[in-house]
Amino acid sequence: VQLQASGGGLVQAGGSLRLSCEASRPTSDTDMMGWFRQAPGKEREFIARIIWSSGSVYVVDNMKGRFTISRVNAKNTMYLQMNGLKPEDTAVYYCAAKSAGATSYAYWGQGTQVTVSS
């Protein structure tokens, strides 16, 4: 599966962005997809995940209320709606996919840069 992330950009603090992650083929064998981010000089950070079949979601506590993960099956696309952005949200955002039965995310998108100015 190839993943194409898009939607990043430059936004002022308090603004919003919606990231998209399109899979190259139907996600019938995809168990879970997720969003991660990595800021300069920091480790990669998990943000949220969605179970593809059920749509069940999980967002890390410190981003709940600002970040929302969703998907549209028919478009093989996952989204991350980000509201109330802060300068500390500046990072490269990555999407990833995990196949059923796998223990880790094996497929990664190329990343999209999000820059939040103060």
Give the topology string: H per helix, E per strand.
EEEEEEEEEEE
Major sheet details: 7 strands, mixed
Classification by helices and strands = mainly beta
User: Which spans of ≥5 residues are poorly predicted at pLDDT below 50?
Assistant: none
Care to describe what's here?
- The chain is mainly β.
- Helix content is 0%, strand content 53%.
- The chain has no helices and eleven strands.
- It has strands spanning 3-6, 9-12, 17-23, 30-38, 45-51, 57-59, 67-72, 77-82, 91-99, 107-108, 112-117.
- Strands 2, 4, 5, 6, 9, 10 and 11 form a seven-stranded mixed beta sheet that branches.
- A hairpin with a 6-residue loop joins strand 4 (30-38) and strand 5 (45-51).
- It is globular.
- The N and C termini lie far apart (37 Å).
Spell out the key features of this protein.
four-stranded antiparallel beta sheet; globular; seven-stranded mixed beta sheet; 118 residues; mainly beta
Secondary structure elements and pairings:
Layout: E1 3-6, E2 9-12, E3 17-23, E4 30-38, E5 45-51, E6 57-59, E7 67-72, E8 77-82, E9 91-99, E10 107-108, E11 112-117
Parallel strand pairs: 2-11
Antiparallel strand pairs: 1-3, 3-8, 4-5, 4-9, 5-6, 7-8, 9-10, 9-11
